[in-house]
Design brief:
- This protein is an alpha/beta fold.
- The protein contains seven helices and six strands; from the N terminus they run E-E-H-H-H-E-H-E-H-E-H-E-H.
- The protein has helices spanning 20-23, 29-43, 102-118, 135-145, 160-166, 182-187, 195-204; strands at 2-6, 12-17, 122-125, 150-153, 172-175, 190-194.
- A six-stranded mixed beta sheet has the order 2-1-3-6-4-5.
- A hairpin with a 5-residue loop joins strand 1 (2-6) and strand 2.
- Helix 4 (135-145) packs across helix 5.
- The model has no long low-confidence stretch (mean pLDDT 92).
- Residues 63-93 are annotated as: Disordered.
- Belongs to the universal ribosomal protein uL4 family.
- It holds the Pfam family Ribosomal_L4.
């Protein structure tokens, strides 16, 4: 399918042909959800930790003699039932990551791209290049295109001026094409791809 190409100033810059195998799929929410869950689980730090009875700083001596007191039979004050004792079955440092087949991850990305095109939230620009690293200039260009919540995907190398100018604008993310991912695509309203990014994606999924 063909899609109009625009410049950052809002002028027409021809058309580009998009592959139906990447941008023309019927989006499946279950596949997209699996990929997002995999991404977020891998991102989770898992540094939560509670001290067990072997780690708390407390005496390990028997609290009182076993027999003759009429009280329950206790040993260490580090036991979980006592105030200041260790936590029973508490959280430990671990990885929350789980496996997801590479083919499913690739399919999820294609479905996310197709969903953006179907929702008319995909814009193709000729290039992501700024003459100078001025946030004010870039903000004006975004207003012309109606971009307030957007993810920009450039080529393999990002223009340093564009990246510096865009990084101070709220709700605007800029990534090279190698960093494109399902979660970032979905968390922003619009997706803007450069022609170089489109070519790289079609080469990747060839």
């Amino acid at each position: 399918m063909d899609l109009n190409v625009t410049t950052l100033e809002g002028k027409e810059a021809g058309k580009v042909s998009l592959s139906d195998a990447i941008f023309g799929l019927e989006p499946r929410e279950d596949i997209i959800a699996r990929v997002v869950r995999w991404q977020l689980a891998k991102k989770q730090q898992g540094t939560h930790k509670a001290k067990g009875r072997a780690e708390v700083s407390r005496t390990g001596a028997k609290m009182f003699k076993q027999k003759g007191t009429g009280r329950a039979r206790h040993h260490s004050a580090r036991a979980p039932q006592f105030r200041g004792g260790g936590k029973a079955h508490g959280p430990v440092v671990r990885s929350h990551a789980h496996d997801l087949p590479k083919k499913v991850r690739a399919l999820g990305l294609r479905h996310a791209l197709s969903a953006k095109l179907r929702a008319e939230e995909l814009i193709i620009v000729d290039s992501l290049v700024a003459a100078e690293a001025k946030t004010k200039t870039l903000t004006g260009a975004f207003a012309t295109l109606g971009l307030t919540n957007v993810l920009f995907i450039g080529g393999a190398e990002l223009d340093s001026n564009f990246k510096l100018a865009a990084q101070n604008i709220p709700n605007v993310d800029v990534l090279p094409v190698q960093g494109i991912n399902v979660y970032d695509i979905l968390r922003r309203g619009k997706l803007v791809l450069s022609k170089a990014a489109v070519e790289a994606l079609e080469e990747r999924f060839k």
